[in-house]
Each structure stands twice: as C-alpha cells, then as structure tokens.
C-alpha cells in the first residue's frame, strides 16, 4: 500500500500526532481521546490503516508531521499558508472563537475587534490565530505575548497579568477545568472571525498516497451523512 514511499509489502503504521486541545483531542488519565481524535480513530479503522497516536506540544507536532512521511496531525486549522504543506481530510468538528476576560475586570469592555487591541493577549507561539490577530492590531511583545504552552498564559491570565485570552465555545471550559475553574470566572466578549481558517482538519504528510486521503474523505463523508458527527460531539459536550 505504501510501496511508493519505500515501506515495502509490510503494512506500515502511521503516527497521528496531536496536542492537548480539549474537547477535540486531549489526554485523560493517560488515555488519548476527544471529538476529532475519536473521529480519526474511526476513519483509521474503516480504511484499515494502522494508526498510532502521540500527544506532543503543538509546535513539535507541527514540525514532525512535515518531516515524517508516515504521519498525520489532528486537529489542524486550514489556512492559505498551510494549504500546500499537507494533504487534507475534513473538515472535522470546530466551533466559533471569542475573546474572553476575567469576570472581575469590568473595565475591559471592547465592543468590536479593533478595540480588543487596546489590551494584552496571550497566545501559543505558532498558533494559527497569530495572523488574524496581527491584522486587528496586536503586536508581538507589545500587546501580544507568546508562550510555549497554553498553561503558561492561562496562569498569567488568572493572575491578572494578561487581559485577554482566546477560546472557542467548545474548548474553553475544558481548558479552564484543567486549572480548577468552571467557566464562570470569565466573560465572553467579541467574536474573532475565523472563516479564513476553514475549520479543523486531519492533515497527512505529502508522502502518503493520495488514494488514502481520498478514502479517508469518503469515509468521513459517510459519517457526516449518518448523523453529521453528532454521536462524537455528544460524548464530550452537552449537545
């Protein structure tokens, strides 16, 4: 199946990298799970592709999937800059993205996107939102502070050292629960339009045969036709 990339007759194992991005993909007591990871696991089974999953920091996972010919990555936002780097399966499940502040910080009241740039924002280095927020007016080391991991800027946010964080309607509660918060401590502000990103995808290294990508997309279409992925969303949300 993968003889074109030198694997030979033996059925290869493809490593699917992922990051801590609940509820889409995350580690729960050592078990990798999540809406999109569960979908990808099903797609691997239905296409009879041997897959193993590995949780890594985002920047490392994003780098490795471009180097390892037998690899993929989930969940990955699709953008024009990334289009030619990978082969794409999706879209999977995603949700709308907003700026949030601490509930006690009543003085932080942006009413539009332009006004959000009057405050400080924390973000992971290499985050796909970087370009979008720079277009709004955020500048590195001025009002945009970049970190290696989510927990670094979330800790500073709750210590009132950073004014704003970004989160989606489905992911933020999961992220905050990891720090002992339930979501009532934050207030949803202005929506960040992310249409340019086209949602979350599974991407594969370009060495993976195109027929594999086609089969994955066909099986995903079949899952969507059955219940629009509702079964997978219900496992992790109140839908």
From TrEMBL:
Domain called Solute-binding protein family 3/N-terminal: residue spans: 13-239
Entry-linked InterPro entries: Solute-binding_3/MltF_N
Pfam families: SBP_bac_3
SMART domains: PBPb
Origin: domain of life: Bacteria
The protein's name in its UniProt record: Transporter substrate-binding domain-containing protein
Taxonomic classification: Bacteria, Pseudomonadati, Pseudomonadota, Gammaproteobacteria, Alteromonadales
């Amino acid at each position: 199946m993968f003889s074109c990339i030198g694997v030979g007759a033996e059925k290869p194992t493809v490593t699917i990298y992922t990051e801590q991005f609940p509820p889409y993909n995350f580690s729960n007591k050592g078990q990798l799970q999540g809406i999109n990871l569960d979908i990808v696991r099903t797609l691997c089974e239905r296409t009879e592709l041997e897959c193993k999953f590995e949780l890594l920091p985002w920047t490392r996972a994003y780098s490795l999937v471009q180097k390892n010919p037998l690899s993929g990555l989930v969940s990955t936002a699709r953008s024009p800059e990334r289009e030619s780097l990978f082969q794409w399966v999706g879209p999977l499940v995603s949700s709308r993205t907003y700026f949030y502040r601490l509930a006690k910080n009543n003085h932080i009241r942006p009413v539009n996107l332009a006004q959000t740039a009057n405050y400080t924002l924390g973000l992971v280095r290499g985050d796909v939102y970087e370009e979008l927020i720079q277009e709004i007016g955020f500048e590195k080391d001025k009002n945009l502070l970049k970190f290696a991991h989510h927990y670094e800027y979330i800790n500073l946010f709750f210590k009132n050292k950073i004014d704003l964080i970004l989160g989606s309607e489905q992911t933020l509660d999961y992220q905050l629960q990891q720090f002992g918060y339930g979501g009532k401590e934050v207030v949803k502000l202005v929506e960040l339009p992310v249409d340019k990103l086209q949602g979350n995808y599974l991407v594969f290294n370009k060495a993976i045969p195109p027929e594999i990508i086609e089969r994955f997309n066909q099986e995903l279409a079949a899952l969507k036709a059955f219940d629009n992925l509702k079964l997978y969303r219900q496992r992790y949300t109140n839908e």
